[in-house]
Specification:
There is one protein chain. The chain is mostly helical. The protein has 5 domains: 60 residues; 59 residues; 56 residues, no CATH class; 69 residues, no CATH class; 63 residues, no CATH class. It is built from 28 helices and 2 strands.
């Protein structure tokens, strides 16, 4: 048998220094019934850090504290309690009394008397029965009434209790507000309202739980989250970044420039925009979409700023109106030709296709601009017997250029002429 104070090997996935830091607290947690807070106070260990360490590395000890024996490998995936079920600690405390409530032997006693028999709080036992075993209460009252053991005491919510919580219950039934907000708005006790809902309005609790389940991990601004709150920025955040968001929406300034002007940090502004205004970021990239589609579009679009669009606007207009080569226009405006071509293909695909390469019927690729330039000369050369030099002179084309274009790209025309 291993001694409690014996040194144990470091658990898998933890560093030796972490194991050494919590060794004394872990020994007390394993060998005593002291509360976790008392253990941390004695060993001068941060309670939150030690609690997280137990849950991640020594979950089997957490189960053992609640009287549940489980293998370490099973404890890694097992839950101590279901999302809304009775906890192991509550089951250990109230289990015997709850069994007595369902036992005909104790039928002559009411709930309060049974609680006193087991040295428990009557309100605590009643709360456990209403929350987790409501069928025991109904079955017990029916049997007591049949046997004539009814004490003629009123059951259910008292009239003054229903009136006190009526406003908060109606607010929770018709809106998505949180229980805490409803309690504050109606001036009632938060814990009292929560217990009133669990006991007498289980339909509201179930409906709200289903909504919160659907809202888990939501990223849509204004939508309901898994915590029951709305996914919206806090009033402090809205006020802090109000001017920065206005500048981002109405100007072509970069995020760094806006942060410098408004006195906020660039990272903070970037995270605020990314979280709450993804459609504005996409607007800077030249993409129009709703908030619902913004997150998906964010991953599909390349990051171009409004200032980038302004940078290329003059060159694009010159290219569209003059028909000059892309490289020549890029040099004229001091741009990198390859980067300019990439921008054209992504943001001006029609213009890029017009200026780009085209495939002839024979399979060869030629410049679209050159093909447009020599189209009439090719038609005349194919359909008439006029010499090529005369065609070039009539259309005001350079003979050597026209002849070279036909030799490179349309040799079948020359062959048909000779035949």
């Amino acid at each position: 048998m291993e001694r409690p104070d014996a040194k144990r090997p470091a658990a898998a996935g933890t560093r030796p220094e972490t194991e050494a830091r919590y060794r004394e607290a872990l020994t007390l947690y394993r060998t005593t019934q002291l509360s976790l807070n008392e253990i941390c106070r004695r060993t001068k260990t941060p309670a939150a850090a030690f609690r997280s360490y137990i849950r991640r590395v020594h979950r089997e000890l957490m189960f053992a504290r609640h009287g549940i024996g489980i293998a370490p490998e099973e404890a890694r995936t097992a839950r101590l309690r279901s999302q809304r079920g009775q906890s192991a600690a509550a089951h250990a405390k109230y289990g015997a009394a709850i069994d007595a409530c369902g036992d005909p032997t104790y039928l002559e006693y009411n709930i309060s008397q049974i609680a006193h028999l087991f040295r428990l709080s009557p309100s605590g036992l009643s709360r456990q029965l209403r929350a987790h075993f409501p069928e025991i209460i109904g079955r017990r009252e029916e049997e007591r009434l049949r046997r004539g053991l009814n004490d003629n005491l009123p059951r259910g919510a008292k009239r003054w209790c229903r009136e006190q919580y009526a406003g908060a219950v109606e607010l929770l039934r018709t809106t998505d507000t949180t229980i805490a907000a409803a309690a504050e708005a109606c001036g009632v006790s938060l814990s009292g309202l929560r217990e009133h809902l669990l006991a007498y309005h289980k339909d509201i609790v179930a409906k709200r739980s289903a909504k919160r389940k659907r809202g888990r991990a939501t990223v849509l601004r204004g939508a309901l989250t898994g915590r029951g709150t709305r996914h919206v920025p806090t009033p402090e955040q809205v006020e802090k970044y109000r001017e920065a968001v206005r500048l981002y929406r109405t100007t072509a300034l970069t995020q760094k420039e806006i942060a410098a002007r408004t006195g906020v940090t660039p990272n903070g502004l970037h995270n605020h925009l990314r979280t709450w205004y993804p459609e504005l970021i996409l607007e800077h990239r030249g993409v129009k979409c709703s908030n619902r589609a913004a997150e998906r579009k964010m991953r599909e679009t390349k990051h171009y700023l409004k200032s980038t669009a302004a940078k290329y606007a003059g060159a694009i207009e010159r290219l569209r109106s003059s028909g000059c080569p892309t490289a020549e226009v890029a040099r004229e405006f001091g741009l990198n030709p390859e980067v300019f071509r990439m921008y054209l293909h992504e943001h001006e695909p029609a213009l890029a296709a017009h200026l780009g390469m085209m495939r002839l019927p024979g399979g060869k690729r030629v410049s679209a601009r050159s093909l447009e330039k020599y189209a009439e000369a090719l038609r005349l050369y194919r359909t008439t017997g006029e010499p090529l030099r005369a065609i070039a002179r009539r259309l005001d084309l350079v003979y050597n250029s026209l002849s070279g274009f036909i030799r490179r790209n349309c040799p079948e025309m020359i062959a048909s002429r000779r035949a």
